[in-house]
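Predict both folds.
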Amino acid sequence: MALASSLQKTASKLMGKFGGALTYRRVSGGAYNASTGAITETTTDYNLRGVLQDIKAREVNELIQAGDKRLFIAATDLAVTPSTADRVIISTISHQIINVQTIEQDNQSITYELVLRA
């Protein structure tokens, strides 16, 4: 357990030092408005830092497309577990979350790896 705690602290420090600013937008199911025919969403924003990378050409497959991005964020910097229903805002561009992978140690989340699509 001490190793997991140490890795969490290290991940958070590295993201804070080398990561760029972003907004993680948690999207909760909304209510249907019968008069307008629209579904309202409830959102909660979390400001944090993460490391963004391009997807390599050899990684493109049925799920991942050319032009997608990979984002690493420290698990302790985010109060919620990422979901594909949520969005990430980077430089005013909203990105859809395509895939979420959790990197764990001793059943504790260390970092999240998100595949994003604009």
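Second protein follows, with its predicted structure tokens after the sequence.
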Amino acid sequence: MSLIKEFSSKKILSLIWQQDGTPYFKAKGTAAGVFSGCFPFFGFQTLLGIFLARIIKGNLALAAIGTWVSNPFTYIPLYFLNYKIGSFLLQDDENIIIQPSLIKEEFWQQGWFVISRLILGSSVIGLLLGLISGTLTYYLVKTIKK
């Protein structure tokens, strides 16, 4: 079983390192993908990552791979962290997760309460993780090519 994991990890790493372009080009693609993967836009994260990578002239394949930062194993912790960061930045009471009086007439107002905090937190965490992953990719690719 560990041989399969080792083979898979090596195969994925070789795919990343075999991509065309400079370390900076690869880093921009990875950063765009990780940034996009931090948002709760299920089904559109990869498209957003590729779109952003094209705008900043980064590697499109690495942008698509970078969106895998959010997956079924990381959805709940990542989006909960994003929500908490957004709530902190908007100076909400830390004990409030969502408004307790969620009734039909107030549904859209409640939705905006949650979504605004989630999007703000996703932006902050996405920028941070994108910067970290882009920097790591740059230095790893540059080091391995030597």
